[in-house]
Amino acid sequence: MVLRLSRHVGALCFLSAAVFIAMTGMEFFYFRQLSGGLASLDMRYFGFTPDEGMAWLTALGRRGSEIILVWHYLTFDLLFPVLLSLTLVSLTLATGRRLKKFRVLPAQMQAIFALVLVLPYTLADYAQNIAVARLLSDFLYANPDSLSFASALIVTKFVLLAVPVIVIAAFWLAGQRRQN
Fold first, then answer.
1. Which pTM was predicted?
2. What is the pLDDT of residues 10-42, one digit of tens each?
3. What is the DSSP string of 90-122?
4. How far apart are CA 138 and CA 102, in angstroms?
5. Residue 90 to residue 93: CA distance in whole angstroms
């Protein structure tokens, strides 16, 4: 089943891009208004301090927190990590198969390679979503330790996302070089 994902790389890329654009649009046109212009914690690629996290939660208030919880974490962010992960797996397989050394690997090894490459990002993204959703749903849980943990998960998510993106780019470049 995993191996068939490369057949749908175009559709998966399109769907991932569409969901990402919708999420980004909501961030800039709605969520930032709720927080007085502060970026959501998910958008802080290099993390945030406990004070910055608390300032965002305070600016949102109860109503803003509930809106973001429902419209981001219980809708888009339930779908997006798995959709992006499937897209990354499919891109890994599609670009890898352009290389002779990857193509000669048994199909099961190709699938395992792609999954092992992407799964850490997927787990980190869902862990981060749970941590931030917990902060949004229970203000009493928002303390320096839980805010620092959520920040660390956000940074970890983006670092782990960079790994398959770099591998896909390297595969693509190697495939381009081979064609020339």
1. 0.91
2. 999 999 999 999 999 999 999 999 999 999 999
3. HHHHHHHTTSHHHHTS-HHHHHHHHHHHHHHHH
4. 47
5. 5
